[in-house]
Design a protein that fits this description.
single chain; 105 residues; alpha+beta; four-stranded antiparallel sheet; 2 helices; 23% helix; elongated
């Protein structure tokens, strides 16, 4: 299985940005790799746990040269609420300029 944590996909999401702020400071090779709602039922999903760790480049094997080895003892987690995520998502969409296609037609 090829495994590369070079791109931090979770960090691009509103919940990931919040988690990284709460976990700051983090090293450059810190990656979020797990996120999930706490609670058994959808109605209870008000808090999300987000987990990350520091990764290093593999020196041998099929992932050699890739940021794919989790550094032991660097795992950290935090919680973000549904309300915090909603506010962050709204702020993020307000920063993105609208694209008009009228002039292309």
């Amino acid at each position: 299985m090829n495994f590369d944590m070079e791109k931090d996909i979770f960090a691009e999401q509103p919940y990931g940005k919040l988690a990284l702020k709460k976990l700051a400071p983090v090293p450059a090779n810190f990656r979020l790799y797990e996120a999930g709602w706490l609670g058994k039922r959808h109605e209870d999903w008000n808090v999300m746990e987000v987990t990350g760790a520091e990764f290093r480049v593999a020196k041998t094997g099929p992932n050699k040269g890739k940021l794919s080895i989790k550094v032991k003892g660097t795992q950290r987690s935090t919680h973000v609420t549904r309300e915090e995520i909603a506010v962050a998502a709204t702020a993020q969409t307000e920063k993105v300029p609208a694209i008009g296609f009228g002039s292309l037609l």
